[in-house]
Amino acid sequence: MKDDEAMIRDILHNREKALEKLYDRYAPSLLSLCYRYAGNMQDAEDILHDGFIKVIKSLADFKPRPDGSLEAWMKRIMINAALNFLRDHAREKKEVDLDAIQERLQVQDENTDFDLAHLPVTQDQILRLIGELPDGYRTVFNLYVFEDYSHKEICRQLNCSESTSKSQLSKARAVLRSKICETVNILNTR
User: Fold this and answer.
1) Topology at the third CATH level for domain 98-188
2) pLDDT the model gives residue 153
3) For the chain, first and last CA: distance in Å?
4) Residue range(s) of every CATH 1.10.1740.10 domain in the chain
């Protein structure tokens, strides 16, 4: 944390190397987070760029806390940048309405254990499959699974009902499970 505080001071004093250091240190993990929401690298890079601009503009307001970190603070900003990006693109696409997606794909969520540790898929393959989920499924899945949001928090963020959030998560899991099984079957036939 001391290193982060020194880096922040250097950035606020317009020392360019400090800004590069901040980017080099945190961009890889933040890009991964952005990719989980965007589903493709081009949009993830756009989100990262927008998020970093917000980070830099807000850096003077960052107050280190014993229970928080600069990285956690930056992740919150990136999540909000990703959600804003998805909202903006949902307005453009029109078909990315969460309630409409809920009705599109009727998949039963199996109540079976699904242990990824015993399947021959890599983390990169799983992230790619998550990226292929429809926007609504992927967004709810990311917020719930990776960011530990509750369904109440998700519905506040996405302006949808709690039942829609639960349904999106259930369907995302079912689709992801199916895609993983499909990938495993392809790998087993080689």
Assistant:
1) Arc Repressor Mutant, subunit A (1.10.10)
2) 92
3) 48
4) 2-93
Quote the pLDDT of residue 167: 92
Q: CATH 1.10.10.10 in the chain: give the residue spans.
A: 98-188
Q: Are 8 and 62 in contact (CB under 8 A)?
A: yes
Question: How do residues 2-59 score in pLDDT, each as one tens digit?
Answer: 677 778 888 888 777 888 888 999 999 999 999 989 888 999 999 999 999 999 899 8
Question: DSSP string covering 86-134, please?
Answer: HHHHHHHHSTT-HHHHHHH-------S---GGGSS--HHHHHHHHHTS-
- In CATH, the number for domain 2-93 is 1.10.1740.10
pLDDT of residue 50: 95
Distance CA 151, CA 157 (A): 10
**Residue 143 structure tokens:** 């917020």
| b/e burial code for range 84-115 (CB count within 10 A of at least 16 → b) | ebbeeebeeeeebebeebbeeeeeeeeeeeee
